[in-house]
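User: I'm new to structure prediction. If I give you an amino acid sequence, what do you actually give back? Let's try with this one:
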Amino acid sequence: MDTIHYEQRNHLAFITLNRPEAMNAFNYDMLLELGQVVDAIRINPDIRVVVFTGAGEKAFSVGADLKERKNLTEQHVKRNIFKIGEVFSTIESLPQPTIAMMNGFAFGGGMELALACDFRIVADDTLLGLTETSLGIIPGAGGTQRLPRLIGESKALELILTARRLKSAEALDYGLVTRVAARDQLAEITGAFADAMLANGPIALQQAKFAVKNGMNTDLQTGLQIERKAYEITIPTEDRMEALAAFGEKRKPVFKGR
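Assistant: Good question. You get back a string of structure tokens that encode the predicted 3D arrangement of the chain. For your 258 residues, that looks like this:
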């Protein structure tokens, strides 16, 4: 069985972590396959939004496969840590907007995958958190860096150092997730969120994401220059001219990503 299930519906890509028997824990094979799928998405002009989720109803992902890890040599543990960090950084840097549709438990590396996404929509009856310190380790796939940038240093330290498992509503209060949805409405609400972006120009989506992500890592004036350059990329596009024509004709634009 493939550890990653991939499906494309029109311009929306779905990546499903497909080890439900292991609560979608990451073993090395899954990391390799996930990396290959993400690399293919990066260069696919037909994909405009990406959704990550987990197979089954129990877990988005509970992180590293501890059954695998207890049998690994120290060298292979380091290999796995490098690979998971590399793959999650690739996900974070995807030009397309990304959504983690969190259909169950998200602990450790599972939570770190969600943090590498732009948005997190979570079922209302689950738990999530960075729980690594309870295992004598620390978040090693970006958690110590992405979480404080998302919710602030003090709150991030609190959650990491206590290894606290948050209920969905608590995670929303902390600013950790974007939306909380009833389980039977999770797919519908995630789809509507994706559709709101898919209705807009795909080049504009990518350039806006690029400007925000890269501008946040620098000072304001440099960020403004990044924004200006990103804006200039949209000026000669067919999509911009289509939007102007559609406005004049009082219709919705049909964007082609050109």
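You can read the tokens as a compact description of the fold. Here is one thing that stands out. The mean pLDDT is 93.
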